[in-house]
Amino acid sequence: MNKLIGEITDIQSLERLNLIKCKVGSQTVNVLMLEMNIDMKPGKKAELLIKPTAVSISGERCSFENSLRGQISEINKGEILSSITVDVEGFEIECIMLSEYDNFEKNVFVMFKANDVAIGKVFE
């Protein structure tokens, strides 16, 4: 499980739908969730959780809700699947993908949907 720590910068709510924006380094992660911890407020820090299978990698920014710039730090190539680790401002994000598609330059974007992010803990 990928774990990032971000500062909550904004919360938008409409009925049961909540969009939480978190600053991770100089980049923003969008989190879309139905149930929201009442402790979440702008200025607090949150642990963001993303499954490696929900992460995609591209050499260019794409129209994902979350697209973070980083550098590949490790590739573990398997026969069928590869594990690619990307350093995003000091946080490691792992992506699991088919080995036939793991040829990337060092500088990449990791991408994932806002509803693929869960909030684990909220800190002061």
Description:
- It is a single chain.
- It is built from no helices and ten strands.
- It is an all-beta fold.
- The chain has a single domain, classed as OB fold (Dihydrolipoamide Acetyltransferase, E2P) (Beta Barrel), CATH 2.40.50.
- The protein has a five-stranded antiparallel beta sheet with strand order 3-2-1-4-10, with no helix packed on it. It has a five-stranded antiparallel beta sheet with strand order 5-9-6-7-8, with no helix packed on it.
- β7 (81-88) and β8 (91-98) form a beta hairpin.
Order of helices and strands: EEEEEEEEEE
Helix content estimate: under 10%
Domain count: the total is 1
Strand order of the largest sheet: 3-2-1-4-10
Instruction: Give the number of DSSP strands.
Output: 10
Q: Nutshell version of this structure?
A:
The chain is mainly β.
Q: Features of this protein?
A:
single chain, 124 residues, mainly beta, OB fold (Dihydrolipoamide Acetyltransferase, E2P), five-stranded antiparallel β-sheet, elongated
Which helices and strands appear, and what pairs or packs with what?
Layout: E1 2-14, E2 17-24, E3 27-33, E4 45-50, E5 56-58, E6 66-77, E7 81-88, E8 91-98, E9 107-112, E10 117-123
Antiparallel strand pairs: 1-2, 1-4, 2-3, 4-10, 5-9, 6-7, 6-9, 7-8
